[in-house]
Write a structure and sequence with these properties.
two-stranded antiparallel ribbon, 14 strands, alpha/beta, Spore Coat Polysaccharide Biosynthesis Protein SpsA, Chain A, 8 helices
Amino acid sequence: MNPTMVLLAAGMSTRYGRLKQLEPVGPKGEALLDYAAFDARRAGFSRVVLIIREELEEAFRAHIHPSWPDDLEVVFHHQRLADLPGLPPGEELDPSLASALARRRKPWGTAHAILSARDLLQDAFVLLNADDFYGPAAFSQGLSLLGRDLRRDPGDPPGFGLVAYTLEDTLTRHGGVTRGVCKVDRRGWLESVEEVFGVRRVGSAIAGTSVSGEEMVLTGQEPTSTNFWIFTPEIFPFLERGFKEFLGEVTAVSGGVNSGEGGQEPAPEPEFLIPTQVNRLVARGEAQVWILRTHDPFLGITHPQDWEWAAGGIRELVQEGLYPDPLWAPVEGAGVE
């Protein structure tokens, strides 16, 4: 098995205003994805699948090629809106779906991203955001689960893994973020994960908004998904079915996505998200997820003001000697395909 890390890097960076996946936060201009690659390689990963939008490949190659070492294989994969797994090949699109597809600009979401890369993922893999910093423990914990059967008992449904952080440790002070808030049983198995939007500090409390639009008050101690998953290829048939259902839901709402005619604001483009799909599988008894807890620092970039949080956190880790400066020793080239 060639241990593989999948980096989600196809986001639009709408709130940040520029390509945050390559935003320099390290002392020599390193981006957060460089630290992910460094930690993954140090843990024993040898292959990176980078999921991006096609128009971004040149920028990513220019960033990666001069620095990443040759023994780290890098494969680029383009997440395309027209990749509609789960629908019969060659079937003419429903007019509502065709209309929604023509209007859509934002990628379909994180679950669609890995589903679109399914042909590149023949073995177990870890999956994470390219614009977050997870710390080294997450990678060693993730690697320890690759190749293991995570079912609780023989005959159980497929088992997957999730590295979870404590909610308050993942929050910026500069605006709301999206987090997967988890409920975990006493044995360490996931009971549910709920995508919560706009999670933010409100005085001494923490608040957010559920998928249904309900305001939530949180303690800050909840185990939280920041999208560091351990999956096997067994996830893909479930995601294909789920994506077909998702497309049906999209087209059932006003014939697709509200484009804002009549002076109205366009409705947010719905996304096919990993936490939502995993939550459905767990609720249906079709999958089980083992939770790994970590207390490593978590850093991320959502809002422009988050840069200092991320850069300052990296600076402290470098000063403590936990990462070299520069991160990568000079190399002639990298194993980029």
